[in-house]
Write a structure and sequence with these properties.
With 352 residues, the protein is an alpha/beta fold. The protein has two domains: 119 residues, NAD(P)-binding Rossmann-like Domain (Rossmann fold, 3-Layer(aba) Sandwich), CATH 3.40.50.720; 200 residues, Dihydrodipicolinate Reductase, domain 2. The protein has nine helices and 14 strands. The strands form two sheets. It has an eight-stranded mixed sheet with strand order 8-9-10-7-11-12-13-14, covered by helices on one side. Strand 8 and strand 9 form a beta hairpin. Helix 1 packs across helix 8, helix 4 runs parallel beside helix 5 and helix 6 crosses helix 7. The longest helix has 20 residues. The radius of gyration is 20 Å and the shape is globular. The chain starts with 5 loop residues before the first strand and ends in a 14-residue tail after the last helix.
């Protein structure tokens, strides 16, 4: 009997596919079968460029392909819900690029479609699948630096293409949805808690999207989380944790630099320091016996999705989790718009 595999179709020709395609092909339990575009010629050109066997000129045609059982959905944000549901109705599992949706009602609709059709719909926030994020969560849970009073995060770069869809308000653009969503998801997972109040300020660009976004979130744990996302700043990423007994610093917390090294530095009292070094695959982990090689966050994401599809493993990011993340981002936007603190509705334990 042939080994079970995940047979993937790419729903769009988005640039982010370039990071996912190698991960699919190197998983050992996957085949990339098809790509779909609204334009047949574009799909064929893309398929030839990436050596993909099948090219479809409509999304519906690919969803009708019985050989495909998993879809990587990388359409613009405002189309995620419609097509995730259509994928589910076609019996396909879905890995949906973050943010999974731009309204909590949309996440609820996806959950209903997934349950009705017996498929998985999971958000592709790649850093959530990476061992570095798990390691940081463990440091927090073990109170390695005591009670954490502050977490600060930055995710910024210069977006200089005026035609980029991330600058389109109707498509769910803006730095908060694109970059700040990582910061929100990161804080929620490392703290294993939800924000009880948020406040924010944004600098809007000519198209109306937030080009820069500054946020503050008060968590159930008493931790204050501050982050800054920007499309108009020098490229920079980091996360800093300050506790009663020390500090944790992550220089690439979103592990989004394939081929680069990411470091987690723990300082506890005096000058004592420990450094865990994660190359693109976590080489040279120095604080315990684990060693990780030839991996990256997208590879972790794909491997995890395959485990869920083929072996029934619990998804790393549940739709209830995604619901809370979207609810927090919506609350942040509301605060930036009104100039007032907002209490997000994040404790949605059951989607109905």
């Amino acid at each position: 009997m042939a080994e079970k595999k995940a047979y993937w179709g790419l729903l769009s020709t988005a640039r982010i596919n370039e990071r996912v395609i190698p991960a699919i092909r190197s998983s050992g339990r996957s085949e990339l079968l098809a790509v779909a575009s609204r334009n047949k010629e574009r799909a064929q050109t893309y398929a030839k460029q990436w050596d993909i066997p099948r090219a479809y000129g409509t999304y519906e045609q690919m969803l009708a392909d019985p050989a495909i059982n998993v879809i990587y959905l990388s359409l613009p944000n405002h189309l995620h819900t419609e097509w995730a549901i259509k994928c589910a109705e076609a019996g396909k599992h879905v890995l949906c690029e973050k943010p999974i949706a731009i309204a909590t009602e949309e996440v609820a609709q996806m959950a209903q479609a997934a349950e009705k059709n017996g498929v998985i719909i999971q958000e592709g926030a790649m850093m959530r699948f990476h061992p570095q994020t798990q390691y940081l969560r463990e440091l927090v849970a073990k109170r390695v630096i005591g009670d954490i009073h502050l977490i600060r995060g930055i995710f910024a770069f210069t977006l200089d293409n005026p035609g980029d869809i991330r600058l389109d308000t109707d498509m769910g653009g803006g730095s908060l949805w694109d970059l700040g969503s990582y910061c929100v998801s990161f804080a929620r997972t490392v703290l294993q808690a939800e924000p009880v109040e948020v406040s924010a300020y944004q600098v809007s660009g000519d198209t109306g999207v937030d080009m820069s976004f500054s946020a503050q979130m008060q968590f159930q744990t008493g931790t204050l989380v501050q982050f800054f996302s920007s499309f108009e700043s020098f490229a920079h990423i980091e996360a800093d944790f300050l506790g009663t007994e020390g500090r944790i610093f992550a220089d690439i917390p979103w592990v989004n630099h394939i081929g680069a090294s990411a470091n987690v530095q723990v300082t506890r009292g005096g000058d004592a320091e420990e450094t865990s070094t994660y190359s693109d695959g976590l080489k040279g982990h120095t604080t315990d016996t684990k060693a990780y090689e030839d991996m990256n966050a997208y590879q972790c994401e794909i491997n995890s999705m395959i485990e869920s599809v083929l072996n029934g493993a619990e998804p790393v990011i549940s739709l209830a989790d995604s619901w809370s993340n979207v609810a927090t981002i919506v609350a942040l936007h509301e605060s930036a718009r009104t100039g007032k603190p907002v209490q997000p509705t994040t404790r949605n334990s059951k989607l109905t």
